[in-house]
Specification:
single chain; alpha+beta
Length: 106
């Protein structure tokens, strides 16, 4: 069955399993007790991919000049290093700035 309902394999009654996601193990499985007959059965969550598309944006780091698609923009990521006045940083400069801020706070 689709959605948050599953049929009990013992009594074939429909169970609402919307709370089961929080109990899933690494195999996306959990044990579930039927709300009608009380029998316990194994419940397995199956996830279908949902696809989306967006343009790839390459940005030049305002600190080192490297062009990357992995960048951090001031106001869009927290923490943003106080060390830099620049508004767009590549991943490397951002990490270095966060580390410098942390060392300065000691």
């Amino acid at each position: 069955m689709w959605g948050n309902k599953v049929e009990c394999p013992y009594c074939e009654r429909e169970n609402d399993v919307s709370d089961a996601l929080q109990d899933l193990d690494n195999d996306n499985k959990t044990d579930w007790e039927c709300g009608y007959c009380g029998e316990e059965f194994e419940l397995q969550a199956e996830f279908e991919p949902t696809w989306g598309a967006s343009k790839i944006e390459y940005v030049e780091c305002e600190c080192c000049g490297d062009v990357s698609r992995e960048f951090k923009r001031r106001g869009k990521v927290i923490p943003y290093p106080e060390t830099y006045k620049e508004n767009v940083l590549c991943e490397s400069c951002w990490r270095a700035g966060v580390l410098a801020d942390m060392k300065g706070a000691e």
